[in-house]
Design brief:
This protein is of the alpha/beta class. It has 2 domains: 243 residues, Alkaline Phosphatase, subunit A (3-Layer(aba) Sandwich), CATH 3.40.720.10; 144 residues, no CATH class. α5 crosses α10. It has 15 helices and 13 strands. The strands form 2 sheets. It has an 8-stranded mixed sheet, with helices on both faces. Strands 3, 4, 5, 6 and 7 form a 5-stranded antiparallel sheet that branches.
């Protein structure tokens, strides 16, 4: 048996008046997903345990079968694993976004204009992060460049720091004053952010971006702090050897921590526009080359949700259907037995532009049989009629043992 998970990050949503009261999953044209749904189990899973923030770190831990109450140590340490950054037990890792803030002179008076600095190109971002490391890095604070707007700060010896941080995508369009670093040790991070605005304001990359009509990366922003992770391997848990196909450091790092082989796809961006078909083809190659399990992560719907862009969210769902699921459906006869699970990790509703904690729809297809409880569609409404998996970290067991 082969096992394939397609994680459509943030695809779940609320009913939208503009869509006649339907969600994007209901409204989008998804013939390939619907074809599978008619033979599949469609239900819901509670991927965010009570008391946990609805982050992709917590949700993807759940989806992969790891109880966040036991294994969650923060988001950024997983990104550090992906980036090859070695953390010591006493270190603190933090996500360091490049963001666009409005132009007020007083830093605290600024507004979060864009949490991704216009999905800045990685090459430009690396030049800016080199300037940040040169100007702000020392023996205590070390900056590491990542992909696009997603970067890393390691606070050496910072494991016991008391800080309160806010994800920048949670405050799009809002004044930042109420969301600046707080807590006993927050001032040190705030000073780094203030100084970063001075460094970035005069940088030639930002001048070129402005000349070309793009948003500048005008500041760094810290969030997602955590300590070095430790997970039992996926092979130990399920006796399956596997791979992870993704373009974001968080999920790549989670996969590596779980012993999955990370697969890089040319043209996969971790943004709205990505190499959808390339990810599907990579997954098929991994399964055909001997892997038992492949986890494919697609960020596009989540980014669209954070941007509050309905057209992009519908487009991303339809691209997943045609380019990812369509490619896989066309290859089903290449496998004697295969199970496929499709689901978001969490909702990213357009109305709030951030993650929410509601249970997500899931769909399980098994090539050996057509489930009598098959659904005509895969969406939030049809999923209400199927099984409810709570806690969500047991969904992987359900999928594999079904």
């Amino acid at each position: 048996m082969k096992y394939l998970v397609i994680l459509t990050d943030g695809a779940a949503d609320y009913p939208i008046e503009e869509l006649g009261g339907q969600t994007p999953l209901q409204y989008a044209k998804t013939p390939f997903i619907d074809e599978l749904a008619r033979r599949s189990i469609v239900g819901k899973a509670a991927t965010i345990p009570e008391g946990f923030p609805p982050g992709s770190d917590v949700a993807n831990l759940s989806v992969l079968g790891y109880d966040p109450a036991i294994y969650y140590t923060g988001r950024s340490p997983l990104e550090a694993v992906s980036m090859g950054v070695e953390l010591k037990d006493e270190d603190l890792a933090l996500r360091c976004n490049l963001v666009t803030l409005s132009g007020e002179k007083d830093y605290a008076a600024k507004t979060m204009s864009d949490y991704s600095a216009g999905e800045i190109e990685t090459a430009d971002a690396h030049q800016l992060m080199a300037a940040i490391q040169s100007g702000l890095g020392d023996g205590i604070f070390v900056f590491h460049p990542g992909i696009s707007y997603r970067h890393l700060l390691v606070w050496k010896g910072g494991f016991d720091k008391e800080i309160l941080l806010t994800p920048p995508h949670d405050i799009s369009g809002q004044k930042i004053a109420a969301f600046l670093p707080r807590g006993r040790d927050g001032e040190a991070l705030l000073q780094l952010m203030r100084k970063s605005a001075e460094i970035l304001g005069d940088h030639s990359v930002n001048k070129s971006l402005l000349t070309a009509g793009h948003e500048p990366a005008s500041s760094i922003w810290f969030w997602g702090e955590g300590r070095k992770p430790s997970l039992p391997s996926f092979a130990e848990k399920y006796s399956l050897q596997g791979s992870v196909v993704c373009a974001v450091d968080l999920v790549r790092g989670l996969g590596i921590s779980a012993g999955l082989t990370p697969i890089t796809v040319e043209g996969a961006t971790g943004g709205v526009k990505t190499n959808f078909k390339g990810k599907a083809e990579a997954a098929l190659r991994e399964l055909e080359s001997g892997q038992d399990f492949v986890f494919v992560h697609i960020e596009s719907p989540d980014e669209s949700g954070h941007q509050g862009n309905l057209d992009n969210k519908l487009w991303s769902i339809e691209q997943i259907d045609s380019q990812v699921i369509g490619t896989i459906v066309a290859a089903l006869d290449r496998f004697e037995e295969i199970k496929i699970m499709i689901l978001p990790d969490h909702p990213t509703p357009l109305a709030i532009k951030t993650h929410s904690s509601e249970p997500v729809p899931f769909m399980i297809y098994d090539s050996r049989r057509a489930f009598t409880e098959g659904s005509s569609m895969f969406d939030e409404v049809h999923a209400e009629k199927g099984p409810f998996i709570d806690p969500g970290h047991t969904l992987m067991d359900y999928f594999i043992r079904l």
